[in-house]
From TrEMBL:
Species of origin: Methylobacterium organophilum
InterPro entries named among the record's database cross-references: Glutathione-S-Trfase_C-like, Glutathione-S-Trfase_C_sf, Glutathione_S-Trfase, Glutathione_S-Trfase_N, Thioredoxin-like_sf
Domain of life, per lineage: Bacteria
UniProt-recorded name of the protein: Glutathione S-transferase GST-4.5
Domain GST N-terminal: 1-82
Domain GST C-terminal, residue spans: 87-214
Signal peptide extent: none
Gene behind this protein: gst
Listed Pfam families: GST_N (PF02798)
CDD domains given in the database record: GST_N_Beta
Length: 214
């Protein structure tokens, strides 16, 4: 195992940390997990991350999990990359964004994609998915308003918040939600298209075999 390895699944929440790592320019390797095949439950991976989820970051015998923790760590470990704000209020705003997305958008989406986490009654799955879809749409509208001034999310400067925003944009356009992102969320779509122009984003999307925002 190399000094730094990211465990990820294509299109999963690990996408944000994957982009952040690529932005640093520092060497790292990746291990691709197939969640549909159950790779996250294999003994080999559980020895790395007993939670059985992605992402996980291995560094010299130390393992870090939880996407927002990885984003903060990557940014702070590479200050030269400028991925974390310097001003105290801008730092607070970055933390606010990460909290907003991780504690609202992510759980709402899980109700759409992972209804079995919330009930054992399969007859209740459609209702859970429908409510999750409504909630996720409402949250996306609020995020759209916050991005309506254009530019990057925090103080007009690129940060690890921006890859995290791109993640949820991709989920919105994906098969679970099927939102017309350009129509419903034009400001967020403009942000996604600006992200697509970055070399790190292009490299990661190619590695994960994802379609860039058009």
């Amino acid at each position: 195992m190399t000094a730094r390895t990211l465990y990820y699944a294509p299109g999963a929440c690990s996408l944000a940390s994957h982009i952040a790592l690529e932005e640093t320019g520092a060497p790292y390797e990746t291990v691709r997990l197939d969640l549909q095949a159950g790779d996250q439950r294999a003994a080999e991976y559980l020895a790395i991350n007993e939670k059985g989820r992605v992402p996980a970051l291995y560094e010299d015998g130390w393992v870090l999990t939880e996407n927002t923790a990885l984003l903060r760590h990557i940014a702070r470990a590479h200050p030269e990359a400028g991925l974390w704000p310097q001003a105290p209020r801008a730092q607070a705003e970055a933390d606010e964004w990460l909290s907003w997305l991780s504690t609202n958008h992510h759980p709402a989406f899980a109700h759409i994609r992972r209804s079995e986490r919330y009930t054992d009654d399969e007859a209740a799955f459609p209702g859970i998915r429908a409510k999750g879809l409504d909630t996720f749409g409402d949250l996306c509208t609020m995020t759209e308003v916050r991005l309506s001034n254009g530019g990057w999310a925090v103080g007009g400067r690129y940060s690890v918040v921006d890859p995290y925003l791109l993640l949820f944009w991709t989920w919105g356009r994906g098969p679970a939600c099927k939102f017309d992102m350009a129509e419903r969320f034009p400001a967020w779509t403009a942000h996604a298209r600006a992200m697509a122009e970055r070399a790190a984003v292009q490299a990661v999307f190619a590695r994960e075999r994802l379609t860039l925002p058009a």
